[in-house]
Design goal:
Chain lengths: ~250, ~190
């Protein structure tokens, strides 16, 4: 990942998209981001397919992992949304593992992180927003719009409150997508910057070897930190989706 | 929450910013590049395929295994409950049987005690009767022997007196006087007889 530019550290070129599969990818505009999405999906499916293939009464390691994956998301859905949550379980499961594997794979060198693209995270959050709104209107019809009218507010303040509620509802799209995008991008920029330090200070030699070693150890810590952030942000995305779905089903 | 944790590294990274080639701008915001938008288009396709495959094949498989396990556990618990009920019934039956056997044994002991007491009483009654009989017989024999001895006494006394008097006087005594004197003496001595 460390690429020493002519004038300093080039921390952003890692996010550049490039066409893959030669002429075909060029024509269909397929980038490495899509390859990683496919890999993340394949890993998710492989975990479940290979893990569950023994169908053992007493599960082995991989089957335990697959079952844990299933039960973690199922618990999340049922606890956050209620018993109706089972309906949304396949979607939340797909969402969580799509993002989780996307985030985690990005920590490995030479792997592209598709969740560091605002277009991708915005696409995901927009889909969640549309789904939540659709579910809410399907469940409650026009009564859904009472969601924007808070109870026990003086009539004078009501127009203001409704405007605030609508803005807060719409801002979910932005907060959900920017949170994931910013976290992933910031982490990878940090890794790139400190890796650049290691190369720059290391080539300078002499007394600079000490800060170079320090930068390297910072990167080691950052990798561990990135693993945490990768899992945490996938979980945050999934749990917020569940909370929004809860609001849609129950209107508060 | 994690955004707060990010502030530290972000601040540390700030001094690196001049060195970062910002001239090119963020590749993520380069919407002139068709790849930026098309990654979302293909992403939607991939996500949809993942959703369909996960919800149709992968997740039902897990559900089936989990349900089977839950059923098995419930069945095993049911079986254990049944076994425990049977064991409890067995224990109850054993306790009942023990109590019954104990009461039967007690009754048998009491009956045996009663019958042996009765037998002993009957035996001692028979024995007493026999002893009484023997006692009476013995008393009868004693009385008879005594009567015989008393009856023989005047004859013996007369003979003795005749022999004495004959030796002393040289003449035989008058039998009438002698027998009168003996009778008087016997009457005086054996007044009780």
């Amino acid at each position: 990942m460390a690429a020493e530019g002519h004038s300093g550290i080039d921390a952003l070129s890692q996010f550049k998209l490039a066409p893959v599969f030669g002429q075909l990818g060029d024509t269909l505009h397929i980038s490495q981001a899509n390859v990683m999405m496919a890999v993340a999906s394949a890993l998710t499916l492989l975990l479940m397919w290979v893990g569950m293939s023994p169908r053992a009464m007493i599960p082995g390691r991989l089957q335990s992992a697959a079952e844990m994956a299933y039960e973690t998301v199922m618990t999340l859905c049922v606890e956050q949304i209620g018993h109706e949550g089972k309906k949304f379980f396949p979607f939340v499961f797909t969402l969580f593992f799509f993002i989780l594997f996307g985030n985690l794979m990005g920590v490995f060198p030479l792997f592209f992180t598709f969740t560091s693209h605002i277009a991708v995270t915005l696409g995901l959050s927009l889909f969640v927003f549309l789904l939540v709104t659709f579910v809410a209107i399907k469940e409650h019809g026009l009564h859904f719009f009472s969601y924007f009218v808070p109870k026990g507010v003086p009539v004078v303040l009501l127009p203001l409150m409704v405007v605030i509620e609508v803005i807060s509802y719409l801002s979910r799209i932005i907060s959900l997508s920017v949170r994931l995008f910013a976290n992933m991008m910031a982490g990878h920029v940090m890794l790139e910057v400190f890796a650049g330090f290691v190369v720059m200070l290391g080539t300078a030699g002499g007394i600079f070897l000490l800060p170079a070693a320090l930068s390297l150890s910072v990167n080691v810590v950052l990798i561990g930190f990135e693993l945490l952030v990768a899992s945490l942000q996938a979980y945050v995305f999934a749990i917020l989706t569940c909370i929004y779905l809860h609001d849609a089903v129950h209107l508060h | 929450m994690s955004r707060l944790r990010r502030i530290g590294p972000m601040a540390a990274g700030l001094f690196a910013i001049p060195m970062i080639a910002l001239a090119d701008g963020l590749p993520q915001l380069d919407f002139a590049n068709k790849l930026t938008t098309f990654q979302v288009v293909w992403g939607v396709v991939i996500f949809a395929i993942l959703y369909v495959l996960a919800s149709r094949t992968a997740l039902p498989k897990v559900e089936a295994v989990l349900q089977e396990r839950a059923k098995r556990i419930a069945g095993d618990l049911e079986g254990a409950k049944d076994a425990k009920a049977r064991a409890d019934a067995g224990i109850q039956a054993a306790a009942d049987a023990t109590a019954k056997a104990r009461s039967e044994a007690q009754a048998a002991i009491n009956a045996a005690l009663d019958s042996s007491k009765q037998a002993a009483a009957a035996q001692s009654a028979v024995l007493n009767e026999r002893l009484d009989k023997q006692l009476k017989e013995a008393e009868g024999q004693i009385a008879a022997a005594r009567g015989a001895a008393l009856a023989a006494l005047p004859g013996v006394a007369t003979d003795t007196a005749v022999a004495l008097i004959t030796r002393l006087t040289g003449a035989a005594p008058d039998p009438a006087r002698l027998s009168g004197a003996i009778n008087a003496a016997m009457a005086a001595r054996g007044a009780g007889q």
